[in-house]
Each structure stands twice: as structure tokens, then as C-alpha cells.
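Hi, can you check this record?
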Amino acid sequence: MTAPDISKIRIAGFRSIEDAEFPLDRINLLIGSNGSGKSNILGIFELLHAITIGKLQTYVAETGGPEVLFRYGTKQTNNIMLQAEFGDGFYEIHLHPDAGSGCRIASEQLTLTTEDKTLKLVSSDTIETGIFAGVQADASWESFRLHLQSWTTYRFQSRCTGAEDERRLTEFLFRLKQTAPEYFEKITDTIRLIFPQFGDFLFREESGDVTLLWTDRQGGGHAFGLHVLSGGTARFINLAVLLLQPTPPRLILIDEPELGLHPFAVAVLADLMKLASRSAQLMISTQSVQLLNAFGPVEENTSSRILIVDMNRGTTTITVPTPESLAEWIEEYSIGELWQMNVLGGNP
């Protein structure tokens, strides 16, 4: 059994979000001004992922502790509530500040419904998850657990990768070339679309270690390290690997993928996202009008959805435009143009 996508999220008391609920589709585009809370919305899914893999306390510590996690600190907010719907499945958790620098799971519950049965699990007063830590001899539960634990977040920093990220990229591409060469070729062919001088990846093995290099087609096969790539080129390479892998995570979170990319590269990136959405659900935070336009108008029963993020009096709000609300506009303007004109909202 394959676990369904997330269909709806509700969260309260989390960072700048007082209480918000919004639906999700296969491709979800978050748009909004700087400081509106788009990163906090991505953080909802990072929080849920950390819970399911038993690393809630690590997540709390790495994100600044309860005073950052709970809305306006623990003196004003003492409960974070998160609900997630997965088709007929439902998960809810309540978090309270701990006496120390972490937080406790006050309660959590999971309901999974299949054609022939309903599975209900509950847990309360734990430091880490009491639902996903155990072993359940149930195929629907196992599929759901693996679904949530496969999620990944892509937040690109200033350059290509840090040492650890470069090591992971090297290991992944080295293994991919050996086990799924057709996907390796798809990645290299796609990189050449926006970086014509790129020849191929070269793996140099020394004393059991593998170093990833790339060759210049105009330089007689001369090999370079990843550190000489421009920020935009490095970003696109990482995104191509993420979106073209044979078995992508079930949910992929990407924060502003368009930064540093040429307009043609943004168009190619949009195509890669559509391709990846056949196997994965995507949550994309963006400020790119071009990327937004690549997904067309807002229509019901399509695989993409726009979520407009605003900051109102210190509170992040999320609205979803409907076909009815845009019917008179969409005949003459693109979605990106409507955003620029402030018809959609999501502007300072």
C-alpha cells in the first residue's frame, strides 16, 4: 500500500503562525514578501518530519529552542498544535514547552483508514514520538511511516555545498552511475542545457576516498573541482540531481530555488519540477514571477496550487486563490503579472 499525499495542514502556535489551515496539491508554490513567514511554513513540514524520525529535541535545539519555536515565546504560547490529513488518514500532535530547553509531546494520535479496516494509535506525555518509534505489524502504518520519514528539505546556502553536502552528492552520483546509468545520463544531459561547456562528472578514487570533479568540453577534458562553479550553476546541478533521481522522497521542500539562475534555467527547472511531481509532492517557496507563470492559472483539479503568504500584525496568514476569484483577470494577465499588480496579495 502506498501512503497518500498530504491533503491538508492545520497548525497553531508555531513561530509566526497563530492558527492557519490550508490545502495541498502535488506542486505547491508559496509566494509572499520577505519576512511574511514562507520559511516558517516550510518549517511545519520539517517539524513533522523530525517528529516521525524521533529527532524532535534535536530539531527544537537546532532551530533556537522553545522561545523561538512557540509563538512569541513560551510565556505567551504554551501549546503547538499540528494536524495533517493524508486522504482518509489523520495525524494530530500537541507540543508543550519542557522544563528544560526542549519540549514534550503532550499527546499525539494517528488514524489510518483502508478499505477493510481502521487503525488508531494514541500516545501521550513523551519526549519523542510514541507512535512512530514502535513496530506495527500493519502494512498501511509502515507505508505511512516510510512516507513521512523520506521527506527532504533543500535550502541552498551561498555556494555549492559544504564539505558534508559535497560528500553526499559525490557518493550519490557515484552510486547512481553504477546502478542506474540512464538516470545519471539524464542528469548530465540536463546540466548541459544550461551549462553548455559542462562535459561530464569525473570520479577520482584515492585511498578509498572518492572526489567529484567535472570536465570542461572546451578544455580538452581538463577537470575542475565543484568549488570553481558559480553559485547559480552549482544550485542548478544540485536541483537537477534532487529532481531527477530514480526514487525521489515522497515530499520535497525547496526554498527559493530560482536564486542565481538564468531565466532559461528557471524554465528548465519548472519542467523538472513537473516531472518530479509524478513521483513526489513538492512544496516550493519562491519569489520568481517566471517560475510562477510556468505553472499557469489557478484551476480546480490540477496538480499545482498557489499559496499566498502575508504578514498581518505579526501573524502569518495563508490564502489560496480560487478560479472564481481570478476569473475576470486570468483572461488578460498571467499569474505572475497578477502577483506583481498585487491582485493576489503576498506583497509588502
Observations:
- The longest strand covers residues 103-113.
- The chain has a mean pLDDT of 86.
- Residues 163-179 form the longest helix (17 residues).
